[in-house]
Design a protein that fits this description.
heterodimer; A: mainly alpha; Ammonium transporter fold; two-stranded antiparallel ribbon; B: 54 residues; 1 helix
């Protein structure tokens, strides 16, 4: 009798300890993604500084306000329909039942039994905001804020997350049919945003003065140091972004990729840093230009992000260096073709992300997936990269074309000449420099 | 000891109007309306600003 009592009390104590462990593990998951999301906000602080610095002083505040508003409209629209798109469309374009992700579901609010939905929604909302910021930099100094916000909502709360449903969801068709592998979102965030941006830039046209007799001119950033600092802030934010790409599992599983294959933060750390370093070195060698040298950090990380869990760090370094030349070369090519991408976003995010997806097939083809999904293949990665490029480009091009036809896309030429801050923004970025004849009050 | 709070007042989803689906739909419509209204107001501001600087 006494022995039974002892065993029962031990079991009760063990159960109590297990419950405490489970609760704290669930809290740890929340804490991890909470801070990933917070760190991701630094991406937007970085884009803010970067875009304002890259603009001429007459457009600096307009570039900043545009960027801030993008974040502010993508968050509520991602709440309204972005999260539902992710949960409803893994199989393609026919929506599955996902009423729990609709904004009027009780799952989309405080719930004492749900320590996952809110924090994952937040991380994904910030991923979406990143796509909006990628677009934002390329179109500075001549797009209408209203048109930009429409495009940013489309990209940040619908298009990228549809790609996310296809290539980043455990049931996504690109994974189940092609074994798609893109753990750090080279494709589903960067490539899709880059190609969407390309579609918009074609309709938006270059800034006044960018081309003289068909020859591209350099429009200088008004504050290059701020741009460099902004880019470094984005690199900092990338650690939150990439942390948010890994799955912190409960139980005894530990870390996995979003595809449930084993990995850990150490793998991500090796290749993120080696990619960053390779990108900086590559872009420095390719250009000797400060802006591109710092942008190289982005190129490097994006170029290896899809295979962060699989690459040898030395290989990641070499990939990043090589992709730096590709990113710079593609930006120069686009410039020659009359595409005025003010910050090189199509090359840095679009082309680099696209090739990064394919490179996983080149270097890690044959790596198995779990759950009966096909192995990673060069064929599968290439097909999916093409799908992503089309999914990004077509809506960006078509919607911006409609806006252009309605005369809603671009500011008038005289406004572009005067500067957007003077016309639209009720403040001056550097009031002491405004000539007294034009200064107000 | 060892138990987390999994319900509060006998429900798990405990927030304002959680028991009123119609209210949640109306709030969602309100959020959508505000975003659309913001873009509309920006369009109006742009139109006026551009007109003032012709």
């Amino acid at each position: 009798m006494a022995t039974e009592t002892t065993l029962e009390s031990l079991q009760a104590a063990l159960d109590a300890q297990q419950a405490v462990f489970n609760m704290h593990q669930a809290m740890n998951v929340e804490v991890f993604y909470w801070w990933c999301t917070a760190i991701m906000v630094m991406i937007h602080a970085g884009f803010l500084a970067y875009e304002m610095g890259a603009s001429r002083s007459k457009n600096a505040l307009a570039a900043g306000v545009k960027n801030i508003l993008a974040l502010a409209v993508i968050i509520p629209t991602f709440y309204l329909f972005g999260w539902w798109i992710y949960n409803a469309f893994p199989a393609g374009i026919i929506p599955a039942e996902a009423s729990g992700a609709l904004p009027w579901s009780t799952s989309m609010g405080p719930d004492v039994q749900d320590m996952g939905s809110g924090i994952f929604w937040a991380a994904f909302a910030l991923f979406g905001a990143t796509t909006g910021s990628i677009l934002s930099g390329a179109v500075i100094e001549r797009i209408r804020v209203s048109a930009f916000l429409i495009l940013a909502i489309l990209l940040g709360s619908a298009i990228w997350i549809l790609a996310g449903a296809w290539g980043w969801h455990p049931d996504g068709w690109m994974l189940t049919k092609f074994g798609y592998h893109d753990v750090g979102a080279s494709g589903v965030v960067h490539a899709i945003a880059g190609f969407f941006t390309l579609g918009v830039l074609i309709n938006l046209g270059p800034r006044v003065g960018k081309y003289v007799n068909g020859v591209a001119q350099q429009i200088k950033a008004h504050n290059l140091p701020m741009t460099l600092i902004g880019l470094m802030m984005i690199i900092f934010g990338f650690f939150g972004f990439l942390g948010g790409c890994i799955i912190f599992n409960g139980g005894d599983t530990g870390w996995t990729t979003i595809y449930n294959t084993p990995t850990n933060l150490s793998a991500f750390a090796f290749n993120t840093l080696m990619g960053f370093a390779g990108g900086v070195i590559g872009c420095y060698i390719a250009t000797r230009d400060p802006f591109w040298t710092m942008s190289g950090g982005l190129v490097g990380i994006i170029s290896v992000a899809a295979g962060l869990d699989l690459y040898d760090p030395g290989l990641a370094f070499i990939i990043a260096i090589c992709m730096s030349f590709v990113a710079v070369g593609s930006a120069k090519f686009l410039e020659k073709m009359g595409i005025d991408d003010a910050v090189g976003a199509v090359g840095v995010h679009g082309i680099t992300g696209f090739i990064a997806v394919i490179l996983v097939g080149v270097f890690a083809g044959g790596t198995p997936n779990v759950g009966g999904n096909p192995d990673i293949t060069l064929y599968g990665q290439t097909v999916c990269a093409i799908v992503i490029a089309i999914l990004g480009f077509v809506p960006g091009y078509l919607v911006s074309l409609v806006l252009k036809k309605l005369d809603m896309l671009r500011v008038p030429a005289n406004v572009e000449d005067l500067g957007l801050d003077e016309v639209e923004i009720l403040a001056h970025p550097y009031p002491e420099t405004v000539p007294s004849s034009t200064a107000k009050s | 000891m060892g138990t987390s709070i999994t319900t509060w007042e006998n429900v798990s989803a405990y927030f304002t109007f959680a028991d009123s689906p119609m209210a949640l739909v109306l709030f969602s419509i309100g959020v959508a309306g505000i975003v659309v209204g913001l873009i509309g107001s920006i369009m109006k501001h742009e139109k006026e600003a551009f007109k003032n600087h012709k």
